[in-house]
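re: ur msg from earlier - yeah i can do the calcium ion complex, just paste it... oh wait u already did. ok heres what im feeding in:
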Amino acid sequence: ASHTYADGPDTYTITAYATDDDGGIGTATLTITVNNVAPSLGDVSATSVNEGDDCILTGTFTDPGVEDTFTLTVNWGDGSLPETFEYAAGTTEFSELHQYLDDNPSGTASDDYEIIVTIEDDDLGSETASTIVSVYNVDPTPTISGLPDVDEGALYTLTLSFTDPGTDTIVQWQIVWGDGDVDTFFTDITSASHTYAEGPNTYTITVYATDDD
Ligand SMILES: [Ca+2]
Ligand SMILES: [Ca+2]
Ligand SMILES: [Ca+2]
Ligand SMILES: [Ca+2]
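and the outut:
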């Protein structure tokens, strides 16, 4: 005779009864140990993302223990604290999100992080796997504002700001004033001034912002 035990680790005593044709009953017992089997991971992968966006981490897992529940621990590889996710018995796949705030280190247009995942059943059996996520830098978007006109020889002031989906800093502002003068600042600034020597004239001001990547 065969039987499948749903959950381990545990100890069970098997008792067999044999009855003869005169109604006599004999018994025998056997004590067996049922071991837990650790869950196993498959197909762990992560989507590449632009900085500021959510990466989707997916994977599958199997466990012959149909009553086991599961805890997934994810180390996202970007210095954030490991996260845990709980799954009910019978679960065989997962899909979780994580926002990457930057492509570290600075000076590179994209960087890879190693994501380490561990699936553990409620009997402490576990398996660990890893995958790579590529995070891409996104260019900053500068915004400028200033008065529409100025007198020749007077100081003209431009106000500067920027947005960036990453937690980036601006390492260079370049301002092309339109009259042949160009100013470059190797730091983040919020305003800049310039004197136009000759009017009347119309100039187009162009600004370039460079982030740390
Ligand atoms: Ca198990
Ligand atoms: Ca980088
Ligand atoms: Ca960046
Ligand atoms: Ca950026």
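cool cool. The domain at 40-136 is CATH 2.60.40.10 (Immunoglobulin-like). ping me if u need the other ligands too
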